[in-house]
Amino acid sequence: SLDGMTHLEKEIAHYFLYDSPKGLTAEAVAKKLHVSKASLTRFAQKCGFKGYREFAFEYQRYKEESEGQFSTIHQGLTKRVLSDYDEILAKTYSLVDEEQILRISRRLEEAKRVYFYGQGLSSLVSQEMKIRFMRLGLICEAVTDDHMLQWMDNLIDSECLVIGQSISGKTLAVMEALKKAQKKGAYTILMSTQKLEKDDVADEVLLVASAKNLSYGNRISPQFPLLLMVDL
After folding, report:
1. CA gap 197, 205 in Å, rounded
2. What's the average model confidence in pLDDT over 167-188?
3. N or C: which end of the chain has fewer CB within 10 A?
4. Lateral strand order in the sheet of 204-207
5. pLDDT tens for residues 25-67?
6. Helix crossing, 52-69 with 26-33: angle to 10°?
7. Is 159:113 a contact under the CB 8 Å cutoff?
């Protein structure tokens, strides 16, 4: 996690996450990034290692294992796409809170009606959730139209569960509709990559993984992390 790291340490992390460095000696990395060896040591310790040498050893081992996974793939772009998916999966593992998932599952079972709010690409996830949960016997609906989101508070009461999706945590119509639903007594959940204070937006914030290229949809589908969490 990058939480608690300085700006310099985040730059070092970005280098190892996305630039795939070949020379891993402290001297080579320090020269490349224009940082001191002490900065590399502090970064490694923030990551849970005793020092930089231990970090470099584990990083090299991880890199070799990752390359081994894709040993039968020859095109560079294909490898990068698969690597992005691999990164999302790894980040999802680190975010999973099984107690929270069980708590939300109970809310789904208890709710009389369930509404899924989403716009843009997230609206596709709302539609998918509706289909998945209807097959399980839940009374639910996907709400993706701007006007419908504004009018939903006329239908919401304390027996409802409302799940909103906003990868950026800044989808205004979804965020405002969630707040309205919460005021009407519904239990509300926001699925987002942003670590927002739950009291400001919903009763629960369900974190999903993010990646460098995710918001642009350049190499992988932005909905993928949301769908992973739906499966869980």
Report:
1. 8
2. 92
3. N
4. 140-143, 113-118, 160-165, 187-192, 204-207
5. 999 999 989 999 999 999 988 888 889 999 888 888 877 776 6
6. 90
7. yes
Tokens of 88: 């999302």
Q: Which two tokens stand for residue 35?
A: 């940082």
Which structure tokens are listed for 11? 């730059």
Closest to 190 measured CA to CA, from 204, 170, 177, 172: 204
Q: For 113, phi and psi rounded to 5 degrees?
A: -140, 145
Q: Name which of 98, 89, 101 is nearest 225 in CA terms.
A: 89
Please determine, for residue 158, whether its predicted confidence score (pLDDT) is greater than 70. Answer: yes
What's the CA gap between 221 and 232, in Å, rounded? 18
Q: Which two tokens stand for residue 149?
A: 């989101």
Where does residue 172 rank: exposed (0-12), middle (13-18), buried (19+ CB within 10 A)? exposed
**Contacting residues for 169 by C-beta, under 8 A, at least 6 apart:** 175, 190, 192, 193, 194, 196, 201
Q: How many residues does the chain have?
A: 232
Predicted TM-score (pTM) of the model is 0.68
- Tokens for 17, please give them: 């996450």
The number of angstroms, rounded, from the C-alpha of 213 to the middle of its chain's C-alpha atoms is 12
Query: What does the alpha-carbon distance between residue 102 and residue 108 come to, in Å, rounded to a whole number?
Result: 10
Largest pairwise CA distance in the chain: 64
Q: How far is 138 from 186, CA to CA, in rounded Å? A: 16
